[in-house]
Amino acid sequence: MTTAYDDNQLGRARVADTPELTAYYGELAERDAGALWSVANDIEPWYPQPKSVPVLWRYEELRPLVRKALDLVNADDAGRRVVMLVNPGRKDVSAAVGLLYTGLQIMGPGEAMTAHRHQAAALRFVHEGTGAWTIVDGQKLRVGPRDFAITPNGTWHEHGNESDDGPVIWQDGLDIPLVNALDAGFYEVHPELYQKPGKVINSSVLTYGANLLPYGVEKWTRPYSPLLAYPWEPTYESLRQLARASEGSPYDGVIAEYTNPVTGGSVMPTMGAHMQLLRPGQATKAHRHTGSVIYTVAKGRGESVIGGKRFAWKEGDIFCVPSWAWHEHSNLDQDDDACLFSFNDFPVMRSLGFYREEAYADNAGHQPTA
Ligand code: 1HN
């Protein structure tokens, strides 16, 4: 049995092991009980102690492996043909960071995956390919490179690739590890295996895509955004306009959240998403916050320092920032902007009152690196 003894921490548990206590701990364990003081300092850390470590996944290394899956497994057998990104500290729960899952899904020309629904919420960010479609609760959406789409929890969804000239690779993001940590997972296969989509493609984008709330909007009472897809072009254009009007954040450059147009809140109750633009040559200052973030490089090249470690990135790369880890980003291109897509668990942190943020005070706001 380990002890929680620490002689520098008055007010903290500091009981040293003795033969009597060791025997006592054994007696408690036999009755499915334990002594709080023997674990108190571990289960009540001074500040978050994530098991996740910062990781960068290089797209050029993963892409050939993702394409290999196309030949190795057929979509029907695999259900979804996905290479998941696994944080070395979170293998036990298949998380890329914290309680967030992400993976790269590949769909060959003409392929279609069957419909299902589950308690976990999902989002998609398209890496490559032109023929991607998804049907979410009967609404068919077409999505292309750098588009962002959501599959809120409980919605029926299926997807495929209707092009004949190459595979689609998109990134899935899910709150699966969170749902499982709360023992709240359910999963159902669609009774007819495929949905019958409505005739209008991208109807939520046509309805909500222009900052105008349409007649009848008050009938929308679900806890997620009725807008299901956020195309790249207007998103990028908005960030460029925002960059003309505002300095942006010292920590994130010109950053904006994808929102539920009805509430102005996050797109889903458990996961939020942002797109951010770093001006040519811009280097942000370091900050940290509770909540985990998975970034995907949408455009450009640069580097981020996360927990004192430097990670160089370029388009398609994915990296993660564990909760409470210091992080800062730089655009290494002096002539063009760089864009980072990201998703996070901030809505969970905020709604539970767990959100905290802190600026790095020393060294002009930059972390020392090894
Ligand atoms: C899922 O339903 C999809 O619908 C992708 O494409 C990845 C990972 C875990 C659990 C469900 C999809 C998933 C998933």
CATH superfamily of the largest domain: Jelly Rolls
Bound molecules: 1-hydroxynaphthalene-2-carboxylic acid
Q: From the coordinates shown, what is the CATH architecture of the largest domain?
A: Sandwich
Number of strand elements: 22
Which runs of at least 5 residues are low in confidence (pLDDT < 50)? 1-7
Mean pLDDT: 96
Q: Which fold name fills CATH's third level, the topology of the largest domain?
A: Jelly Rolls
User: What value does the Rg take, in angstroms?
Assistant: 23 Å
Query: What class do helices, strands and sheet pairing give?
Result: alpha+beta
Shape: globular
Major sheet: order of its strands? 1-19-16-21-14-13
Q: What kind of oligomer do you see?
A: single chain
> CATH class of the largest domain, anyone?
Mainly Beta
- Total domain units: 2
Beta-strand fraction estimate: 25-35%
How many H/I helical runs? Answer: 8
Largest sheet: 6 strands, antiparallel
SSE pattern: HHEHHEEEEEEEEEHEHEHEEEEEEEEEHE
Task: Please give a structural write-up.
The protein has a 6-stranded antiparallel β-sheet. It is α+β, with helices and mostly antiparallel strands and 370 residues long. It is globular. The longest helix has 14 residues, at 59-72. The protein has 2 domains: 1-46, no CATH class; 56-365, Jelly Rolls. It has helices at residues 19-30, 40-43, 59-72, 75-78, 176-181, 203-208, 232-245, 346-351; strands at residues 56-57, 82-84, 101-107, 116-118, 122-128, 132-136, 139-142, 148-151, 157-161, 168-174, 187-189, 229-230, 254-257, 272-278, 287-289, 293-299, 301-306, 309-314, 318-321, 327-331, 338-344, 357-359. The two termini are 36 Å apart. Bound molecules: 1-hydroxynaphthalene-2-carboxylic acid. 1-hydroxynaphthalene-2-carboxylic acid binds at residues 80, 82, 103, 105, 120, 122, 157, 172, 174, 176. Residues 104-170, 276-338 form the Cupin type-2 domain. It comes from Streptomyces lutosisoli. It holds the Pfam family Cupin_2.
